[in-house]
Amino acid sequence: MRQGAKGGHERAVQAEARRVVDAYSDMVLRLAMSYLHSLQDGEDVCQGVLFKLLCHEGGFKSPEHERAWVIRCTVNACKDLLRSAGRKRLVPLDSVAEPTAAPDEEPGRYDELLEAVRELPEAYRLAVHLRYLEGYDIARIAAITGDSTAAVTKRLSRARQMLRTRLGEHDERAV
Fold first, then answer.
1. Phi and psi for 104 in degrees, rounded to 5?
2. Which domains are seen in the chain, by residue range?
3. What average pLDDT does the chain have?
4. Mean of the pLDDT values across residues 60-68?
């Protein structure tokens, strides 16, 4: 009898782990990579955040509160990793390998946009990520970040202007 209860508990834990991974892994990895610019660091943060969620004792008022908690944990984990004194700058092997394309070819427009977003100041980058990649409305972003809706709106407006300026300057050099 006790063996059956133990097996039921293990199945419940596995089901919850599957739910957490299915619900959040892609979002956490995208957000972490937008901060860290490294797949390996992003995967480490993703694993840590999902584990933290699985170990979280308190319940959440709603799925939206859970999702906001996951986003906040991801941002904090990224900030902690960036601040850590022991973080070493490693060069991925891919960047050392022979390039497959000619060096004078222009990268794709999508790659330019991603790079421009990565170079935004942190607060702007987070607002852009939550709005355009995760699809949150301004009120929800304000609730997640703890800012006013006016601040989020202004941040998004400034971020779009910075992106226009950066991408527009690049286009002028190409002409």
1. -85, 0
2. 1-96 (1.10.1740), 107-175 (1.10.10.10)
3. 81
4. 91
Q: What distance separates the 2 farthest-apart alpha carbons in the chain? A: 76
- Alpha-carbon distances of 156 from 43, 88, 132, 149, 162, rounded to whole Å: 27, 32, 10, 11, 10
Q: At what angle do helices 63-83 and 2-36 cross, to 10 degrees?
A: 60
Helix 138-145 and helix 149-174, axial crossing angle in degrees, nearest 10: 110
> Residue 104: pLDDT band by 50, 70, 90 thresholds?
very low
C-alpha distances (whole Å) from 102 to each of 69, 95, 98, 99, 105 are 44, 14, 10, 7, 6
Cβ within 8 Å of residue 48, ≥6 positions away: 77
Q: pLDDT of 25-54, one tens digit each?
A: 999 999 999 888 888 999 999 999 999 998
Total-model pTM? 0.61
Residue with the bigger pLDDT between 11 and 114: it is 11
